[in-house]
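Final paragraph of the annual report: two paired records, presented back to back.
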Amino acid sequence: MNLKFYKRNAVGAERQLGHTNYHWLTTAPKLWLPRIGNEFVISDQRVFVKTGIFSTNIRNQPLAQIENVYLKQSLVGRLFGWGNISIHGTGGHPIELKNVATPLKFYNACLHAIASRQLQT
């Protein structure tokens, strides 16, 4: 996964803890275009989501403002390794990541980052 945009915009000594992208099976009917230009990253400071190739949407959620992280996987999603992640913070709209690869790994990275951040404060 190419994380050029995230790496160029990392804040200070920010460390990446996990990343994911759309699962290849869920984007196969549309070819590979939905996977290009997307960056879904969890760092030790924030959740960073960038989508789009020609027009870009960027969402950041500081870890200190995250209240809940949800993972939803169907039976087929569990068998083939995709699922949906919803990150709810204080105020605003949740960050929805649909049909992402290795969702349990990203979910656990989110929980670990949030717990580590809470121990620091």
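The closing record of the year follows.
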Amino acid sequence: MPARKSKADGKPKAETGNPADLFLADDEAGRAATLQGQTAMWILERKMSSPGQDRHLALHMLRAAARRCPNAAYNLGNMLQEWPAAGRRSKRTGMAMTLFGFAAELGLTRLRNADEPSSAAPDDEYWLRDVVSRSLTNIGAAVANAGAPKDAVSYFERAIAVFDGNANAHACYGNMGVHHWEETDITPREGIKAWERAAALGDYCHESENGCPCRANVIFIFRKLEAGHGTDEAEDWLTQRYPGLSIRRSSSDLTTPFMEAGEISARTGLRWPGRAVQAANIFGESDILSVMKDSPLEVKVTLSGCILAAMARLDGSRSAAHVVDQAVGDMENIEALRPFLGDEEWETVGPPKTFYLMEEDVKRRLTMMAKHLRREIETRIPGLTAEEGVKGFLFHIDPGFRNGVSSMIETTLRTTPEDFDVYVPAMEIGDQRGLPN
């Protein structure tokens, strides 16, 4: 049977009149192999889950057809890749790559002009170009997965040139720009453009029949950042923050980050207090946070706890812990483009590395920084409430760390007298699996 085609490749299915001519065999043996391969796949699709003589014979038919039919070679290669390998995966992968290479080579020799773009090619080359393109894409994916993305690019480029309707080829080419831009000559923006083309063609995804929601969400965020803040900012997010964020949560869970806190109300419709925006801006301009931005993770988490506790006690309220909890809940799906503490920084940290946080000198310096920031903000924003101050600082912490830092200081906030500094050293920071979604 022919290789599965994209949902919306912009070109009608070729009408050949004779199924034996689908892959343009130039002799009777080749046409017979085409029919043999299609018959074998028809049987295998119905017998795959029920071992028996019919399936055994169909596999032999497909193997014989693969010697002369590019589509049969492609289908057999796919089956070798997908079947449980029982310790022989590397051998089967090698056999599959040989079959894909043969399918592409044989198919290219049957095209009238292999260098002609698919949009200008004769209709009767439709299925042949499709299977050649898919074979090249599979080889490229294997090369990239083996640690050579730069070498894989030429396979994806050739696959797209032969058949532009191959959504997977565009998606793989896009991966080279989004995930491997440093190793290839493909820019992140070009990668996004290729993902958009894949989506337009009906990008396949195991999570959805309507395209890949993860890639669609990353495209949306990139374009929104590009429109509001320029390509450089969008590419910076894509290359610096997105890789770390996508480790702990699927890309479809990511939200569009805000450059400034002042954008929140206009873009979300949420009522964000003006003084909270002012506080966020002051924190963003702070020399202290700027200097501490490159500090070890455990220092940044500890300092964030000190600052959060200091802001939560701004108006002398005994419900400081509740103020923090409420603010964290109110700020769901609000992320800064350049946070002080970003979720992509998450890593496992613990004793003995973190023992130094218990030293009095370290405690004194971090609590003094928190007090200095509180005094500065109180002076510059008269009447600032604890809720507004907490939200202003939380804007500069990504959602995962908001939950972690607020939980870290909650008990101490409830039990420590108001005239005492809240200092909770981040002695242990869990692995990425422990980061809240």
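The chain has a mean pLDDT of 88. This concludes the annual technical report; the extension proposal builds directly on these records.
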